[in-house]
Description:
Elements: E1 4-10, E2 13-27, E3 30-34, E4 41-44, E5 49-55, E6 60-72, E7 76-86, H1 92-98, H2 104-116
Parallel strand pairs: 1-7
Antiparallel strand pairs: 1-2, 2-3, 2-5, 4-6, 5-6, 6-7
Helix pairs in contact: 1-2
Protein name: ATP synthase epsilon chain
Pfam families: ATP-synt_DE_N
Family: Belongs to the ATPase epsilon chain family.
Amino acid sequence: xxxxxxxxxxxxxxxxxxxxxxxxxxxxxxxxxxxxxxxxxxxxxxxxxxxxxxxxxxxxxxxxxxxxxxxxxxxxxxxxxxxxxxxxxxxxxxxxxxxxxxxxxxxxxxxxxxxxxxxxx
Length: 121
């Protein structure tokens, strides 16, 4: 099975790195799916987006990603986010409460956090 090296990094820490078979990210140009052998690309991540990774073990995980860049080379996908949270780190109740806030950017982040955690918005 073909695989690609993936690194998910936020400003404050590395969230995950390893081998994967598929990565999906939301960029300002639209959603992009990356498989091994994908052409090199550089994309700007949207505020309040989600990154989904399918590992070589067949496991899948999501992360809420807020801004940053996606860089794809022949052998590596690097997600360099301003901030990010893995789905299992998200406080769903806190995110639901933030949906009612007045700050549009904060509402977008809350919606992404809920989607990453598998909740409907």
